[in-house]
Design goal:
Elements lengths: L3 H21 L2 H10 L8 H16 L9 H23 L3 H28 L3 H21 L2 H10 L7 H20 L3 H24 L7 H15 L1
Helix pairs in contact: 1-4, 1-8, 3-4, 3-5, 3-6, 6-9, 8-9
Length: 236
Amino acid sequence: MADTNTIRTVVGIIGNVISFFLFLSPGPTFVKIVKAKSVMEFKVDPYVATILNCAVWVFYGMPFVHPDSVLIVTINGFGLAIELFYVGIFFIYSDWAKRRKIIIALIIEIIFMVILISITLTCLHGTKDRSMLIGIVAIVFNIIMYTSPLTVMKKVITTKSVKYMPFYLSLANFANGIVWAIYALLKFDIYVLIPNGLGSLSGLVQLLLFAAFYSTTNWNEDEKEVELSESKKADA
């Protein structure tokens, strides 16, 4: 019979696979953005929040912070790279007002990470204390990442349309939260358990909203917006 560590490793690998697809799930959204040459009504908030979240988790998984967390580092390292790519696309196809907000947000995140790493490495000298500090910070930013779609969810309820709430991202969030919560329970890690438990709940709420407002969504809205935009350009 497999021991707990083996089972945990297997679950962690499954979590990596699901998280891999979670990070890739917004792909169709960015294909639309590139084709339309506009971010339309899509929000950059979840992707900017995820950049900081991944950066904190990569640091958390370092052996000098929280040993035996290689699987956390690998998937969040990939996530950090892909989220930067997504935000780059947003930056290219946004107006200057939105670009300014993106730049400010990224600068704040960089400053925060520099301060966090400096404090951790200079003031804390054991993995237990370092794990506690970074774990608490990771919980906070994981919750921010999972609640960042609230702006989109509010828009869904107001417009009765799920046009701008990516279904696959919501589904992947739900599955990702469930698997990593199981991973945390196998070798009790409260810092992984709390945010992923909340993440699975957030994903579930988004899926319920998708089911509730799918029938009232105007799926041809983008095409009309693009046609109107092209018409204005032609008349100019």
